Amino acid sequence: MPMEEKYANEDFLSRWLAGELTEEELEGFRTSDVYRELMAIDEEAKKLSGPEIDVEKALALVTDKNQQSKKEPKVRRLWRISAAAASIALLFVGYTYFFGNVTYSTGIGEKESVLLADGSLIELNANSTLSYKRFGWEDDRAVNFDGEAFFDIRSGKDFKVRTRQGTVSVLGTRFNIKNRKDLKIQCYEGTVVFSPLSSHLEPTQLSEGMEMDFNNSTIRTNNFTEQTPDWKNGFSRFSQQPFSEVLEELSVQFPVTFEANSIQTDRLFTGQFTHQNLENALKTTMEPMGLKYHISADKRIVTLSE
Amino acid sequence: MTEQEPSICEQKVYEKIFRTHYETVTRYIYYKCGDLQQAEDIVQNVFVKLWKLCSSVSFSKVKAYLYRAANNAFINEKEHEKIVLKHLKQSTISIDHESPDYLMEVEQFHEKLKNAIASLPQKEREVYLLSRVEKKTYAEIAEITEIGIKAVERRMSRALLGLRDVLGKELKF
């Protein structure tokens, strides 16, 4: 049937669906069997309804799944954060390990010996700090130092001890540095050179048996006779030194603080005290000065009176 | 334009999206595969994935995202040759004063119609059902299936022809 051919074809129907037919075409089409058939099918098709779907049940299912999987990304995210933190920490640790310093510190009343890579021995008195580069140290023998220590340096390249107040350079020698309030260097063997930080002062050279005091930017040199520093033998010796220095040294060797309100601490003291025992140390320092002392129950505070 | 879109990561927003789109997307997939259980599984998984990606999908694009993701998931699943649209039901119509004979005929015709729709090529079937059952406009269908309106009309006309080929002789006027 030509009519049928005309209507039952894809192009024509597409145009019909798109509303592109002319009035004439539309009229002709509406009277055709094709149209009636299509309409009848459509009529029934429109009565069909989609499947019944329980949305709320599905939502409950999905929410349940979401909550199960919800924990995962959180954990994973935490993982990432901790991984990042760990890497940074590792980098930091690695950095400080390779480029950082080795540090030795002694507390009140502590002593410690440090053997350096070149065989040099540094004996730290109480309340002192020594640090040096962990790697590449042998190319540049230098240590940073504060407090008091006895240095027994193997001969070799220049060895430097950097302090707050200047640098002590030696070749190979034995010497003691006391860098508390003032700086005191005693040379027991060989020669040492002290170069003050302040540039307008000349470097000072000390040979065996010479000692040097540096305070208020003046340098005094003297001779001394001991073979080893007294502190290494377990006591501190003073000769004609202000009593304040004695108190300071006492509080380096013993964990005490002094209450000396009414006491004149600029009087000079000559004598020594042991590092072994607080009672004895106080007895040997206070009695010659005519002072009374009282130790608090927790042995932290020593109160002085005339 | 600069107005802040609601975040899908918020449970309330997510649930609203679910209630709005779950059924229609599921039906769309059902019309493709003819297996309601499979369609529900596919779409539920799409929603689970949406929750995971909630921060990277924008609210205004979520509808397109859902249809596309469901369609992709459908394509990735094999085995959907045997189409039985058993969940397509007849809407309850006023049947009171129809003769039992007539009802029987209607019943049979519906069965044949369903079979005919089921045997249409998938692309024609989904367009046909979206239009006739879901009552969507050709523009809406074009948006869902991501093809042009012309192509929708072409598929539609092919579907009409296919159905007429099968059912035309059944009709008595």
TrEMBL record, chain B:
Domain RNA polymerase sigma-70 region: residue ranges: 18-78
Pfam families, per database record: Sigma70_r2 (PF04542), Sigma70_r4_2 (PF08281)
A single GO molecular function term of this UniProt record: sigma factor activity
Entry keywords, A to Z: Sigma factor, Transcription, Transcription regulation
Domain RNA polymerase sigma factor 70 region 4 type residues, every copy: 111-160
Keyword Glycosyltransferase: no
InterPro entries recorded: RNA_pol_sigma-70-like, RNA_pol_sigma-70_dom, RNA_pol_sigma70_r2, RNA_pol_sigma70_r4_t2, RNA_pol_sigma_r2, RNA_pol_sigma_r3/r4-like, WH-like_DNA-bd_sf
GO biological process: DNA-templated transcription initiation
Superkingdom as given in the UniProt entry: Bacteria
The keyword Transmembrane appears for this protein: no
Family: Belongs to the sigma-70 factor family. ECF subfamily.
Protein name: Sigma-70 family RNA polymerase sigma factor
